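anyone seen this seq b4? input:
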Amino acid sequence: MFVTVVIVVLLLIHGYVAWRIIPIIGISFFQSMVAYSVIFLLSLMPLLPILLRIGGSESKLIDRISFLGYTSLGFFTLSFIIFITKDFIFQLYPLIEGLFHTKQPVDYSKRDFLKKSVSIAMIGLAGTGTGFGFYSSRKGPTVINQDIFLESLPTGFENFTIAQISDLHVGPTIKRSYVENVFEKIAFQNPDLIVITGDLVDGSVKYLSPELEPFKDMIAPYGTYFVTGNHEYYSGVEPWLDETDRLGMKNLINTNEIISKSGDEIAIAGITDLNAHQINISHKSDPELALGSLPKDLTKIVLAHQPNSIHAVHKVGADLQLSGHTHGGQFWPFTYPVKLASTYLAGYYDHFGTKIYVNRGTGYWGPPLRIGVPAEITMISLKKN
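predicted toks r here
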């Protein structure tokens, strides 16, 4: 059912753009059929590599198909949005014109020229947006500094720094060079502690472990902690937990650790992805299990992939939740539907006394496209409120 829905959406996006541009560019019937056929193949390219990976097939050729398919999808998605908006405005124009009684005799030659010019301009706009979004997504994450104030924070942890990465999505299009970029930026910041809030990978350990090797040197004085996102479950969670352990990360599977500094203590807890139980019942997300044994007056920081975990995390008395998952919408206007599906979209919030920070994603997923939503490494500095 899911695959069927995806195919229908892909065909709708690509088909609508083809229908709006091919008839007006003045090519022959045969050339039009070739163009429609090429666009049909492009519409299926983003899905084909996913199905192959699900079937256990991973290779550099499949990665190249993914890169082309996802980049094409970004262009057609922007084109679809632009053409839908343009067509909506053009439908409204006669109504507005009628209200003001300014309707003039139709000059069909001018109208056709205008429609063709506007359509070509729309394609140019989509191409420019795709180019800008591609550059923004591929140049690597920006370091964003964020002060977080906690009433319960002990004196010894004043100005304690945490580097957060999330949703790196190492896989078909994000490779070792991007991982090295992330590692170097974190190393330059020299944080006290590093946290990874899920969706580190898209693919198997066997195929992707060399791409993540730079993280073996990602060391912080108070440790590096990892929690699962939904994509770890798609990619084989148990092998990946073994691999993150090999890389020196501490896996928090509904568990916690006490961090001591200057005679004071705080707790770092981690819960599994909110929907983990749908794939692995033993990994059902459980904030009570992760936090229930801790003293009430101890500062508790929870790593939870999805912001929607905040409701359960707040109930068990956490002070701060660090999340990702949303990518901040990744590119406008997808910020709006993502906001509808998530309690919090991106940035810093206060949820009835429990603070939450939502990372916009250190990488990207699907189209290599970021417009108005930068990839980020979050440098958090804890402060006494």
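The first strand starts at residue 142 and ends at 150. The chain has two domains: 2-136, 142-384. kinda curious what u guys think
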